[in-house]
Design a protein that fits this description.
alpha+beta, Beta-lactamase, 2 domains, 10 helices, 7 strands, 50% helix, 13% strand
Length: 322
Amino acid sequence: MATLLAPVLAVVLALALAVVLAIGGALRAAGNAEQPDVALVAGAAAPGSAPGAGATDGSGTVERAVSGALATAAQVATAHLAGERTGAALAAVRDAAARAGGTVHVVVLGPDGREQLAGPGADQPVFTASLVKLLVVQQLFAREAAGLLPLSAGDLRLMERAVTSSDDGAMSTLWDRFGGAELMTAAAAQVGLRGTTLPAERGQWGEALTTARDTAVFLSRLPDQLAADDLATLTGWLRSPAAIARDGFDQRWGLLSPAVTTTGPVAAKQGWMCCIDGRRQLHSAGVLADGRTVVLLGDFPVTTSWARAKEALDAAAQAVVG
């Protein structure tokens, strides 16, 4: 309880001190204003002016000073509380990952695209797993809209399956058919993703690298990169993920966990892979109904079970979404 009250008490004290100082300064200013100016004789007004035009109202000075002080104190208090919440959220994410023996890199952007929260590993490259599918799908939509390539009904079904059920076979077909490496490179370049790179082994698209910050930027910039109808289609797919993926993996964790309370639908993509270099990756990234973009990229040793890794992502999502 003491820990929870500390920020509140700090705010109250800051406001009280600001008001006291403001009133004191205003009273001193008002007192000084009552002393006659050597250039004006008391009771004498400038030609054509109303009687008493040279007088100063001290009460107005006090009101303005107090109002300004309260506004400043409120800004300081708001920033202090926001910092407390951010610190608490990052600590919760770190602790949740540590309990599972791994790390969870986190970035949250506001509806305006400005960064609200970023963990120390926001720029740490990790395997994309299935998150790379979004870069390929975005480019296919954009290029069809620009008249650069045709997409058949079958192509669209493959794109939908790659997103909703995270169908790896569908993604591999699209990667080979349309030149996935070039599509991915173009998608990253168009929005300035600095930590997103091709896989070391040709064709192993899940082994491409990205960062939490890059993923957040890409998702937040989708409205700028797609025509309205294509954006609506992709958003609809992201809001309608299959509970069980094509490979049998349960996708109800992280931002899609029933334990995470959100107001409205979440447009999210999940990603998972194992076991290169003795590690497994578990990612959850998406856009909330309130416009915030949330990215959680998990990296764990193979000794950590999928169940424990999912619990870590659930706890991390609860910490940053609430």
